[in-house]
Design goal:
- It is a single chain.
- With 211 residues, the chain is mainly α.
- The protein has 2 domains: 2-61, Arc Repressor Mutant, subunit A (Orthogonal Bundle); 77-210.
- The protein has helices at residues 2-35, 42-49, 53-60, 63-81, 94-110, 113-122, 128-149, 160-180, 192-210; strands spanning 183-184, 187-188.
- Strand 1 and strand 2 (187-188) form a beta hairpin.
- The protein is globular.
- InterPro entries: Homeodomain-like_sf, HTH-type_TetR-like_transc_reg, HTH_TetR, Tet_transcr_reg_TetR-rel_C_sf.
- It comes from Ferirhizobium litorale.
- This is TetR/AcrR family transcriptional regulator.
- Residues 18-78 form the HTH tetR-type domain.
Length: 211
């Protein structure tokens, strides 16, 4: 019986640590989304999670490690929400690839209000925490593109970094505007019919540049 106890106790501690880490991460993301980055700190996260702050130091090494973990989860968000397939679309050109990624990103943001709130804080707050979280998502999108493009190349003379940044920035702003105002620049962003128009516009923009 003693042998069984000695085998199961470490397993129980591992399970408890895993659950505690998840609870702390969830509390940290919830706090960011609801309160923003100015109120984000070890004590605030500990209160939100209902754990002693020493556990944050023990499991994450402090606030920097916690931010790093959130950034990793944002990278995983891209992987989970933006599948590495073409949705039945055969990719012949770089334009095909960018159209698919833009539409995936639009759909993923519309379905995840928590990430939208985090993005809203990213564009309104200037801090190291904001910079690192924004970087994590940008890198994840870049990695997706690198894995998917294979031998596809953009048309000569096109600044892909600038063009793609504009497309993704426009998508983010439209989704955030829909959540706060339900419209942008006179364009309604409430019904599926409204968003169908945006999808068509995104396709035309991408095709106009990449063909």
């Amino acid at each position: 019986m003693d042998a069984i106890v000695r085998m199961t106790e470490p397993e129980k501690r591992i399970r408890d640590r895993s659950q505690t880490e998840k609870a702390i991460l969830s509390a940290a993301k919830r706090l960011l989304a609801e309160e923003g980055f100015q109120g984000f700190g070890i004590n605030a996260v500990a209160r939100e999670a209902g754990f002693d702050k020493q556990l944050i130091y023990r499991y994450f090494g402090g606030l920097d490690g916690l931010v790093e973990a959130i950034g990793t989860e944002l990278g995983s968000w891209v992987k989970d929400r933006i599948p590495e397939d073409t949705g039945g679309m055969f990719l012949l050109t770089y334009g095909d690839l960018m159209e698919r990624l833009a539409l995936y990103y639009l759909e993923a943001l519309r379905e995840d209000p928590l990430v939208c709130r985090i993005i809203a804080w990213e564009v309104s707050e200037k801090s190291e925490v904001v910079r690192r979280l924004a970087e994590a998502r940008s890198k994840a999108l870049g990695h997706w593109l690198d894995r998917m493009k294979g031998t596809l190349v953009p048309p000569k003379g096109v600044d892909t970094v600038a063009v793609n940044a504009l497309v993704f920035a426009a998508i983010q702003h439209l989704v955030l505007s829909a959540a706060t105002a339900g419209q942008f620049s006179g364009i309604q962003l409430k019904s599926q019919k409204d968003w169908d128009k945006i999808v068509v516009a995104v396709k035309r923009l991408v095709r106009g540049v990449y063909g």
